[in-house]
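Appendix C: a fully annotated inverse folding record. The material below is reproduced so that readers can follow the format used throughout the book. The structure is listed first as C-alpha cells, followed by the designed sequence.
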C-alpha cells in the first residue's frame, strides 16, 4: 500500500501539508517508490516560471531515464500477465467485445512498434495518429512511446484542414489512419479526409492504414501500406527505448484564443508520475475494478485516463468505439451492465443529453456494479449533477468533479472518491502537490478564503506542459505573462470558506462546446474567408445540453443575400474546422460594437447572445454606441 494514495481526510491534510512544505521531497519520494527507472535523476526539479521565453523552463527528474511503456506494460507481466488490460467495446453492440490481457497488450504494442520502425519511424520523430477508437489506436500510442517517437493524436472528427495544420505544425513523417471509422450508424471516411489533408503536407512519407470498415479507398503506391499486412510481418519482441525524463512523450493540440491551435508538449518522466498518481488518488482504483472513461483518445482525458494513468496502475480500462446514442440512448448504461463497470467517468454534456431521455433507458439496465462516478471537461450544473447522482449512482456513489486541462496533463482539483467530500458543482480541493490560488484583476493574490478570481497555480507540478511545440514565446505569453511567477489557467473560479474551488468558466476567448475547447478567433478567421463577410465576432452562449454553443455576429459586404450567406458560413466552418465548430446561431448585423481603438467589444456581444440586456456596462465610451440597440433588436 502506497503512503501517497490518500485513504482518509486526515491523511489528505497531512499529505497536502507535506507537499506544500517540501514539494520536491514529496514528488521525489513518490517517483522513487512507484516506478521503474533505468537511472535515477540528478535533480528533482529545476525551474523558472519567468514570462521571458529565454528564461521560462521547467524540468522534472532531470538526468533520469525510463520508458513509460515499461511502467504501463512490462512491469505488470509477472503478476498480471493474464489480467485484462483493455476491454474493447465496438460501435456495433453485436460485435464481440475483446478482452486484451497485459500479455497480449505487450505483444501487440511490440509488434506495432516494430511495424513503425520498419516504416521509417525513429526516436524523436513525430507520428500523427488519426484513428477510430479501436485497440490499434492504443497500440499505436504505446508503440510510439516504446520506440521514443512522439505521438500527436488528432481526434478523428476533425476536418482535413485541421488535420493538415496539425501534421504540418509538428512536421510528422508518418501518419497512421484507418479506411473509415464507425460512429453510430455512420462511417467517417478517415482515409479520404487524410488524403485531402496530405495534399497540403510535404512532410509525411508513410501512411499506415488500418482496415476497419472495409471501405473502398485509394492507396498511394510507395506511400500507403496496410496496417494488417505490416503488423503480420512484425516481431513481437521490441526492447523499450531508453528515454530521458525530459524527452518529449507527446504533442496534443488544444484551441487557443488567437487562432492557431497550440501543440502542448508533454514529457516522459513527469507526465508518467502525475498520470499514475492522480488516477489512483482520484478514482481510488482497487485491483479487480473495471474502469471506464468514455472520452476519446483524441483528447487529453483519453491520453491520461484511458491509457497512461490506468495502465501504469495495472488497471482494467474500457475503450468504447461508438457514441452514447447508438443504437439507442441507453448504450452507456448497457455497457456498464455488460462489463460490470465499477468506475465510470464521463462529461457533463453527455449526462445532460442522456438525462433528457426517457428514464426507462436507464432503469432497464443493471447499474449495481457502479461504485464511483466522475465528470470532466466543463462545469456541471446542479440539475445534471443531481440526475447523475440519483439515477446513475442511485445516491450511493461518490462523484468526482475533476478540474484540469490539456496543459496540466492530469487532474488538479477534485474530490478523492469516497475519501474527501464531494460537493455538487464544486471541483472541491486540490490534490496534494498542487497549489492553486486566486488572483484579482490587478494581479494581487486574493488571500481570504471566501472569494472569486482568476485561477492560477503557484508551483510547478510534474505533468505540466513544457512548451507549445515550436512556439515557446506563445507558451510564455499565454500562461506566464498575466500573473508573475505563476501559471495562469484561463479559468475563473470561486472559493468557499473551507477552500473548496468551484470553476466558473473561461475568462478568455475560448468557448467550451459539449466539452470541446473552441477558440473563437479560429472560427472568426474561417468566417472571414467567406467573400461576402466584412467582419465577424464569435462568442459562446449558454446551451441546455452542450453547456455552451457558438453565436456568430456578422457584417456583410455590399448587399449580399443574408439567408444564403448564413447557410454557406455554417457549411464553410463545418468543412474547414469540423462540425463541432459550426455556429448554432448567426446574426447578420449592420455593425459590431467597438472600442475607440477599434477592438470589438465581445463582452457586450456575449451578453446579447445570452439574452442578458441589462448591465451591458457603459456603452457611451464606444466608437459606435448606436449599433448596440440594433444588435439587441436583431438577436436570433
Ligand atoms: O475551462 C476548464 C474546463 O475545460 C478546460 C480545459 O479543457 P481541455 O484542455 O480540453 O481539457 C478538458 C479535459 C481535462 C478548463 O480550462 N474544465 C475542465 N474540467 C472542468 C472544467 N470546468 C469546470 N469543471 C471541470 N471539472
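Designed amino acids, in order:
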Amino acid at each position: 500500500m502506497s503512503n501517497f494514495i490518500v485513504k482518509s481526510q486526515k491523511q489528505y491534510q497531512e499529505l497536502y501539508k507535506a507537499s506544500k512544505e517540501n514539494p520536491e521531497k514529496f514528488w521525489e519520494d513518490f517517483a522513487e517508490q512507484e516506478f521503474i527507472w533505468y537511472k535515477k535523476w540528478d535533480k528533482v526539479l529545476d525551474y523558472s516560471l519567468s514570462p521571458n521565453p529565454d528564461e521560462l523552463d521547467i524540468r522534472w527528474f532531470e538526468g533520469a531515464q525510463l520508458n513509460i511503456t515499461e511502467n504501463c506494460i512490462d512491469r505488470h507481466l509477472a503478476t498480471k500477465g493474464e489480467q485484462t488490460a483493455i476491454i474493447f467495446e465496438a460501435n456495433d453492440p453485436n460485435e464481440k467485445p475483446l478482452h486484451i490481457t497485459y500479455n497480449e497488450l505487450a505483444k501487440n504494442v511490440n509488434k506495432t512498434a516494430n511495424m513503425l520502425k520498419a516504416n521509417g519511424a525513429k526516436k524523436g520523430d513525430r507520428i500523427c495518429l488519426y484513428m477510430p477508437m479501436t485497440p490499434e489506436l492504443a497500440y499505436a500510442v504505446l508503440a510510439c512511446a516504446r520506440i521514443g517517437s512522439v505521438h500527436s493524436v488528432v481526434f478523428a472528427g476533425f476536418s482535413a484542414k485541421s488535420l493538415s495544420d496539425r501534421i504540418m505544425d509538428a512536421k510528422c513523417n508518418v501518419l497512421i489512419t484507418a479506411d473509415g471509422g464507425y460512429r453510430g450508424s455512420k462511417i467517417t471516411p478517415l482515409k479520404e479526409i487524410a488524403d485531402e489533408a496530405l495534399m497540403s503536407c510535404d512532410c509525411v512519407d508513410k501512411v499506415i492504414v488500418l482496415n476497419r470498415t472495409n471501405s473502398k479507398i485509394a492507396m498511394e503506391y510507395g506511400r500507403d501500406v496496410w496496417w494488417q499486412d505490416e503488423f503480420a510481418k512484425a516481431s513481437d519482441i521490441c526492447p523499450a527505448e531508453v528515454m530521458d525524463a525530459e524527452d518529449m512523450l507527446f504533442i496534443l493540440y488544444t484551441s487557443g484564443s488567437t487562432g492557431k491551435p497550440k501543440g502542448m508538449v508533454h514529457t516522459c518522466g513527469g507526465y508518467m508520475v502525475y498520470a499514475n498518481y492522480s488516477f489512483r488518488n482520484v478514482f481510488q482504483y482497487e485491483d479487480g475494478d473495471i474502469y471506464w472513461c468514455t472520452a476519446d483518445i483524441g483528447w487529453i482525458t483519453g491520453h491520461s485516463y484511458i491509457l497512461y494513468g490506468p495502465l501504469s496502475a495495472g488497471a482494467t480500462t474500457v475503450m468504447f468505439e461508438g457514441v452514447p446514442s447508438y443504437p439507442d440512448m441507453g448504450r452507456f448504461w448497457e455497457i456498464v451492465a455488460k462489463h460490470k463497470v465499477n468506475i465510470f467517468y464521463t462529461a457533463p454534456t453527455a449526462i445532460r443529453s442522456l438525462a433528457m431521455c426517457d428514464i426507462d433507458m436507464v432503469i432497464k439496465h443493471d447499474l449495481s456494479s457502479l461504485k464511483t462516478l466522475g465528470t470532466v471537461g466543463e462545469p456541471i450544473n446542479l440539475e445534471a449533477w443531481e440526475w447523475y447522482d440519483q439515477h446513475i449512482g442511485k445516491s450511493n456513489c461518490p462523484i468526482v468533479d475533476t478540474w484540469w486541462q490539456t496543459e496540466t496533463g492530469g487532474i488538479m482539483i477534485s474530490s478523492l472518491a469516497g475519501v474527501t467530500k464531494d460537493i455538487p458543482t464544486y471541483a472541491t480541493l486540490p490534490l496534494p502537490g498542487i497549489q492553486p490560488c486566486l488572483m484579482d484583476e490587478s494581479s494581487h493574490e486574493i488571500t481570504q478564503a471566501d472569494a472569486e478570481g482568476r485561477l492560477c497555480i503557484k508551483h510547478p507540478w510534474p505533468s505540466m506542459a513544457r512548451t507549445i511545440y515550436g512556439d515557446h514565446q506563445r507558451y510564455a505569453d499565454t500562461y506566464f505573462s498575466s500573473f508573475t511567477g505563476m501559471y495562469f489557467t484561463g479559468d475563473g473560479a470561486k472559493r468557499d470558506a473551507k477552500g473548496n474551488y468551484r470553476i466558473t468558466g473561461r475568462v478568455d476567448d475560448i468557448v467550451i462546446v459539449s466539452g470541446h475547447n473552441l477558440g473563437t478567433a479560429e472560427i472568426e478567421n474561417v468566417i472571414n474567408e467567406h467573400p461576402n463577410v466584412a467582419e465577424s465576432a464569435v462568442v459562446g452562449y449558454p446551451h441546455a445540453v452542450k453547456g455552451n454553443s457558438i453565436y456568430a455576429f456578422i457584417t456583410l459586404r455590399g448587399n449580399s443575400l443574408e439567408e444564403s450567406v448564413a447557410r454557406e458560413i455554417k457549411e464553410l466552418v463545418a468543412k474547414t474546422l469540423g462540425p463541432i465548430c459550426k455556429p448554432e446561431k448567426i446574426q447578420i448585423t449592420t455593425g459590431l460594437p467597438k472600442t475607440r481603438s477599434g477592438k470589438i467589444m465581445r463582452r457586450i456581444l456575449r451578453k446579447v447572445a445570452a439574452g442578458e440586456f441589462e448591465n451591458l456596462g457603459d456603452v457611451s465610451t464606444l466608437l459606435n454606441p448606436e449599433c448596440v440597440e440594433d444588435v439587441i433588436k436583431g438577436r436570433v
